[in-house]
Amino acid sequence: MPELPEVENTRRYLIEAGLPGRTFTGADVGWAKTVKKPSLEDFVLGLTGGTVQEVTRRGKYLLFKLGHQGSDTGPTLVIHLGMTGGLRIQPAKQPVHSMVRHRFFLDDETELRFQDGRKFGKLWLADNPNDILPPLSPDPFSEEFTLKSFRDHLKGRSAPIKAVLLEQSIVSGMGNLYADESLFLAGISPVRPASKLTVKEATRLKDCMIFAFTSALEQYDRSRSEQWPDPPMGLSSWSIPREKNGLCPNCGGPISIIRVRARGTCFCPKCQR
DNA sequence: AGTACGTCCTGATCGC
DNA sequence: TGCGATCAGGACGTAC
Question: Which residues of A are catalytic?
Answer without folding.
Answer: 2-3, 60, 263
